[in-house]
Amino acid sequence: MLTRRRHWLWLAAAFPFAFLVPFVLADVLDLNRDLFYGLYAVAVGCFVAAWARSTGLTWRSVTRHRRWGIGLGLTAAGVMATMVVQTEPASDGPGSVELVAAVLWRGVLYGATDAVLLSVFPILAVFGAFAGTRLRTRIPGLLAIGTLAMAASLGLTVTYHLGYSDFRSEKVRKPIAGDLIWSAPTLVTLSPLGAPIAHIGLHVSAVVHSYDTDTFLPPHAGGAATSPP
């Protein structure tokens, strides 16, 4: 019972956390984009690690259904990559060495960090909050929990993107639509591997196809959008 309550407390804390990190680092401090990604990854890593430790998340929970998670994650990554190519204009990127660095930093690191905060954490936390209950043993109950978990993921996605000034508009609809796709592999399998693979596919595609995208690689305002010297 205590562990289930902790999941709800961590979920409640995640909303102000998800808003304040981009708001403070990008809007208020106007940090360089790549510095922001590094600090964002550290902040999310500490938050999620504290949640996992507090709720007793086991290694078995991390590795469950990993084959299905990886398979569905790759499928969703293909869908996300197609969306990037079809919706964003192509733009020239940097040279080979800098491009590889951008793929690893802006594509893999940032993509995985986003997926952990916006998909893996809320979905596993909601299912963890109902662990040991009758709802987890019946199909209607699982559907209800899954719906709530998806709602939590969408809520965090909206809250996080509102931390960026340019997403406080109709533009926020784009990540909402994307969340329905990149969260699906983890929602269906409860594998924490699915959503990060899908999200990495999205961001890597954005780096390679549309390096100057104004949608998939925030922040875009002020000095935050510039490349490091």
Any overview of this molecule?
With 229 residues, the chain is mainly alpha-helical. It has one domain (2-225). 72% of the residues lie in helices and 0% in strands. The chain has 9 helices and no strands. Helix 2 (33-55) runs parallel beside helix 5 and helix 4 packs parallel to helix 9.
For the termini, the CA-CA separation is: 51 Å
| pLDDT averaged over residues | 91
Bin the strand percentage: under 5%
Task: Note the total helix count.
Answer: 9
Element pattern in H and E: HHHHHHHHH
How much helical structure, as a percent, in the residues? over 70%
> Uncertain spans, ≥5 residues at pLDDT below 50?
none
- Structural class, judged by helices and strands? mainly alpha
Give the total of beta strands: 0
Tell me the major beta sheet.
Answer: none
- Which shape, going by the Cα principal axes? globular
Number of domains: 1
Using the CA coordinates, give the radius of gyration: 17 Å
Please summarize what this structure is.
By secondary structure, the chain is mainly α.
Topology:
Blueprint lengths: L1 H27 L4 H23 L3 H5 L2 H22 L8 H34 L9 H23 L11 H10 L1 H6 L4 H16 L20
Helix pairs in contact: 1-2, 1-5, 1-6, 2-5, 4-9, 5-6, 5-9, 6-7
